[in-house]
Sequence to fold (331 residues):
Amino acid sequence: MSAPVLPAASPAPTGFRDLATRFARWNHRRTLLIVVFALLALLPVLYPSPYTLATVLFYIPWYLAMAQSWNISGGFSGQLSFGHWGLLGVGAYTSAIFAVTYGWNVVSAMAMAAVVTFLLGLLIGYVGSALRGPYFAIATLAAAALIQLVVLNWKAVTLGSLGFPIFYILLSPSDLYYGALALGAIATAMVYLISRSRIGLAFEAVRENEDLATATGIYARGYKALAFGLSGAIMGPVGGLYAFASHYIDPTSAFNLLYNLQIILMVVVGGRGKVLGPIVAAVVFAWVFEVALTSFNVYNYLITGVVIFAAVLLVPRGIFGFRGIPKALQF
Fold:
């Protein structure tokens, strides 16, 4: 007598299999990001010199946070912004004014800067959302220049061309570094969550074909404003940290177009709409820019422009867009 044949186990529902697969992939990518930031957190231990921390290492997470900020608007929603230097300057002045004039602590002042630049980003994104491509880029450039002009002439609050001193607020180089690293981690977490959310899909739909996205029911103007607002919310505290690290700001140093060009380069090389690529590009180029600043200060704009032009031609999909790169890194 033959043994009874047991019924075959029914396969798990497709939905559960897909959910398990997505969770495994998410966990793997999350672990990779944690490892990257853990390594960055060890840099002050490996290079404890206060001079190295203040002059080179600080700018690695600082540029990283700015690059991820631009990545939200320029990478996901496709808004080529040349106005982020204006948001950076507003964040620097907002943080300095609330910390020095009103006596707020550093964290609260930077949080207020995030609120101000978020609202300003929403306004710029909404008003400029009717424009596309180079027209939007020119509009954001003009908006940043207008903001700089307001700061220069609002002498009762900003002290105008005299500059705004922040001498008595002293933060150690390690505090500045880990503050920048925290902002970089928050910005990266925002980019990662956006890349895996419906909001991110809406951003990408608007980037690829705004008319088609609108036809399918996506409120393109609102999503573009939201992307610019979220991007601005990161630039505010980043600007505040720059002010506290510099101890003195004026309308020229706080509003610097070169920073805008540099973060565009980082996102283009790292990959627009990617999470890991801009981190790697920021780590590499932060060091390159500091070397260029100290050795070739006169040619900073020229060097940055040439590198951007070469990057657009040679790596249009970013450094992880080449064939043969493991898919685990292409996110």
Notes: The CA atoms of residues 214 and 220 lie 6 Å apart. Strands lie at 164-165, 248-249. The chain has one domain: 29-329. The two ends are 57 Å apart (CA to CA).
